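Reply to dn_fold:

You asked what the input looked like. This is it:
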Amino acid sequence: MPLNWKSYRPALVRAVFRIRLLLGVIGSAVVLFHPDTPLPDEWNPITPLEVSAPVTALTGWKLRHAVASNSQCQAVLMQARVDITQMLPLEDSVDCTIRPRVALRMVGQARLRTFETRCQTALLMAMWERHGLQAAALRHMGATVSEIRHYDSYNCRAMRTSAGESTRMSTHATADALDVSGFVMSNGETVDLLRDWPGSGPSAAFLRDAFQAACLWFPVALGPEFNALHADHFHLQTKGWGLCR
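and this is what came back:
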């Protein structure tokens, strides 16, 4: 009795599909895990974030993973162009802590007055400096940023609002924020938020581009147009959901 190949066709189609799927999985594994993979690190989802790597569609995903893991954050920072000292956690109270804690003195080309902060804040500062701040400075000021001026990161206090002090603790109480007040350029020129933000020249244009770049890397970025309390600084925060004002 001759075979009815039509009756076997669905099973053959499924078998071919499974074979192709298996070969695809094996091929993908080879591309991802082989030491000589042609896939650049910045496009390889299993390769950890590198601050100096070009920005790709995977950068945000890698950054979120690094920020979510204290150990991974520290590992990324140790490979980055930053000047930090790893420190023991700070435990001032239940509400006021720095974990994990680092002393930060420099990110990329920009020095800072040494301050203590969370690893996550330092990492986002490094990404902002590398992938936004310096380009904005060259574009508008014709120089690079050699210093980032700030009002510190850690402060065990409640949140301040236009109506007065809130009952909620500030993100500064866990060093999940940094207040940036201005910049010093490589040519010696200074840019100050309070003085230059209202203007219309290169300094004002640089500040606006620097702020928009910060919005790409920090979940919350508040500037002089948010309210009077921020007239003299950018509030850059590692926690929150896409607030750029």
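Residues 22-34 have pLDDT under 50 and may be disordered.
Hope that clears it up.
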